[in-house]
Design brief:
The complex is a heterodimer of chains A (about 270) and B (about 400).
Chain A (H helix, E strand, L loop, with lengths): L11 E6 L8 H9 L17 E5 L4 E5 L8 H5 L5 E3 L5 E3 L9 H5 L6 E2 L8 E2 L5 H5 L5 H5 L5 E5 H14 L19 E4 L19 H8 L2 H43 L4
Parallel strand pairs in A: 1-9
Antiparallel strand pairs in A: 1-8, 2-3, 4-5, 6-7
Chain B lengths: L10 H23 L1 H4 L10 H13 L2 H11 L9 H22 L8 H4 L6 H27 L3 H9 L1 H21 L17 H28 L5 H28 L11 H22 L1 H4 L2 H23 L15 H24 L17 H9 L2
The chains are: A alpha+beta (about 270), B mainly alpha (about 400).
């Protein structure tokens, strides 16, 4: 369930080099085709757009948006019925047969990726699946395959990290010295390289550099201890107050008995 | 005990009926056309007032249930017994309304039972779900004697009486866990929340604030009942509760400000933004003002003073939870949320239903009367036993 279980697996990923993107939108088209989604222009991620190419600087710089496929996904930990899972390919998948529709995953995702079928009466969460079936069958993702400029490449995450590092080292002038996704939220399967500082391209820079599920687990793991301690204190207090009530009652009875005996003579000391 | 006038239409009854009808219509619309057509929720703002108010505030206002139950049963401070039953009823109805609100808000409400068998203990929502289920059951059992007495089910009544203490202990644990877990829900969203509200002590703040709010709700509920049923208000008891509220507000304020200072977030208080304004409403109107008012004995012991101070405490509480869930996530101009007409209608309808249900239950069951002591004739030993002795 937690990311640690996958540490041994060769997790796949995507490296998106923003400097190489030519803005042809082939990734959007291929993604829609592979997932059976409508071929219409996207204005943001949506229930029918798993990836979206956002343009900056008068349409000279293009930035893909898609699920980051975190190593320790916040959605996996947030979902109360376990509708999300991190798969062996690295893809984070959603299972609508479990979902109750609380939308905590949408609230929790640090990259605001999960989208909702607001118009549906049986709404599902929709997001990039990193072409799970294709990848499990040994192929690469549709977007990487379709990219004519090599801006999105597919591979083992470890190799992609090395590749990203060597591109920065080979051309330090053309890149900011930062691999987005290397450490964000404890690391993601999708990595970005850019020539322009990431904060100017709409990337959230305040995403913790540790696995986000830890933030809740720190509190959740204390619950059993709290319950036991509170139980002991409350039963303890109850024991004391019950005893006090008993003593008061006993004393009252004794006094009454004594009074009755003394009252028999009709004279009080 | 059928009371004449139950069917007479008064102003507030008409208001309640209209609100319930509108809420019902909005709920029907939501089930017929979906969340998108009836709410202003969107991908960038997936939680609205049905979560922020109906659930977070609803649960908070029910907090009187565990404080008064613990006071009477665990600490055995018997003089609070007269307000026990109405408070438990408020809490129980509060939780039923929370579940009703949840059924409207959830996208796939028919799957809600999945929470019982599909476990993810790493999810705060999992803790929330189990607290709702278990504590609603506990509240039903805590309130059950009122119903059992009415129908003279003595044997069942005896069983419930026998497990009262464990039940109340369980109730306190579940209720405090639930309040804190509603705060913990937000721990996982460090990036998007305004620093005036995001803090790793939200769960702790939620526990402190709910104690003040639960007691304030008890006061307000007593006043409303006294008007509705022509009863005398238990003023000395309520003044005592007000003193507790003063202490809790002081603690809350200290912890809140210390937390802001520790996170270097105090600077945002005076930034003249929408968020800073909402924060000031929350703290000045909802914490400092009632704190100052209730410090005065005159206010605490006057009916109007007490009522309006308690109302301010509730305002501050509602503001804190709504600000945490909504205001703190709003960001101009790309992330704004104004509830739709249907969202308001459902929320107001549920509140009206709560008041109506309380009135109906109070009318037909022995909610305000002294709880008859069934087994022990020496149920209140101190008073008759101890006092004559001191007259010696």
């Amino acid at each position: 369930m937690r990311g640690g279980d996958f540490a041994m697996l060769k997790s796949k990923g995507l490296l998106i080099d923003i400097t190489r993107c030519i803005g042809c939108h082939e990734c959007e088209r291929a993604c829609a085709e592979a997932n059976g989604l409508p071929q219409d222009a996207a204005s943001d991620l949506s229930a029918t757009h798993y990836t979206y190419l956002r343009s900056f600087n008068n349409e000279t710089v293009f930035v893909r948006r898609l699920c980051m496929h975190c190593n320790e996904p916040t959605c996996v930990s947030a979902c109360l019925v376990g509708a999300f899972r991190k798969t062996e390919t690295g893809a984070v998948l959603y299972d609508e047969s479990k979902c109750i529709g609380c939308r905590y995953c949408m609230q929790a995702c640090p990259f605001e990726v999960p989208r909702y079928e607001w118009g549906s009466l049986a709404p599902k969460i929709q997001k990039c699946r990193m072409c799970y079936e294709r990848v499990a069958g040994g192929r690469q993702t549709a977007c990487a395959e379709a990219c004519p400029a090599g801006a999105t490449i597919f591979g083992d995450r470890d190799d992609l990290v090395r590749e990203a590092r060597s591109r920065i080292d080979a051309n330090p002038g053309s890149y900011v010295d930062y691999i987005y996704g290397l450490n964000e939220a404890g690391g993601t399967s999708v990595l970005f390289l850019s020539a322009i500082p990431f904060e100017k391209l709409g990337f959230p820079m305040n995403v913790p550099k540790e696995p986000i599920p830890d933030l809740s687990w720190r509190v959740l793991s204390q619950v059993p201890k709290y319950a036991v301690a509170a139980g002991v204190v409350l039963f303890g207090v109850n024991w004391i107050t019950a005893r006090r009530t008993d003593v008061a009652r006993f004393e009252a009875e004794e006094r009454r008995a004594r009074e009755q005996r003394a009252g028999g003579s009709g004279v009080r000391p | 005990m059928r009371i004449p006038g139950a069917l007479k239409l008064t102003f507030w009854k008409s208001v309640a009926i209209v609100l319930m009808a509108l809420g019902f219509a909005a709920a029907v619309q939501r089930y017929a056309f979906g969340l998108g057509a009836t709410t202003n929720l969107k991908d960038t703002f997936p939680w609205g007032i049905w979560i922020g108010f109906d659930i977070l505030v609803g649960v908070g206002l029910a907090a009187g249930g565990f404080t008064i139950a613990a006071t009477v049963y665990i600490f055995r401070i018997e003089r609070f017994r007269p307000i026990l039953r109405p408070t438990i009823l408020t809490a129980f109805l509060g939780y039923l309304l929370v579940i009703a609100g949840l059924m409207v808000d959830l996208g796939r409400p028919w799957a809600i039972w999945h929470a019982i068998i599909m476990w993810n203990p790493h999810s705060v929502m999992f803790e929330v779900a189990w607290c709702v289920m278990l504590y609603t059951t506990v509240l039903a059992l805590e309130f059950s004697p009122v119903v059992l007495e009415r129908f003279r089910l003595r044997r069942t009544l005896r069983v419930i009486r026998a497990i009262t203490i464990p039940l109340v202990v369980l109730g306190v644990i579940l209720s405090t866990l639930h309040q804190s877990s509603l705060g913990s829900l937000f721990l996982i969203i460090p990036g998007r929340m305004h620093p005036l509200w995001y803090s790793n002590i939200i769960p702790f703040l939620f526990i402190i604030s709910c104690v003040a709010a639960g007691l304030a709700m008890t006061i307000v509920e007593s006043f409303l009942s006294s008007r509705a049923f022509g009863r005398e208000v238990e003023l000395p008891l309520l003044s005592e509760l007000a003193r507790v509220i003063v202490v809790v507000l002081a603690l809350y304020f200290t912890v809140r400000v210390q937390d802001l200072m520790a996170r270097d977030a105090l600077q945002y208080v005076f930034t003249a933004t929408y968020q800073s304004a909402m924060f000031l409403v929350e703290i000045v109107l909802g914490v400092l003002l009632p704190f100052g008012l209730l410090l005065s004995r005159r206010v605490r012991e006057s009916k109007t003073g007490l009522f309006y101070s308690a109302a301010l405490v509730l305002l501050g509480f509602v503001a804190h939870r709504m600000n945490t869930a909504i205001t703190s996530m709003e960001h101009w101009p790309d992330r704004l949320y104004i509830p739709s007409v249907q969202e308001f209608a459902v929320t107001l309808g549920l509140a009206a239903f709560g008041f109506t249900a309380f009135a109906v239950v109070a009318r037909y069951f022995n909610v305000f009367g002294e709880a008859p002591h069934v087994e022990e004739p020496a149920g209140e030993p101190e008073a008759p036993g101890v006092l004559p002795a001191r007259a010696d």
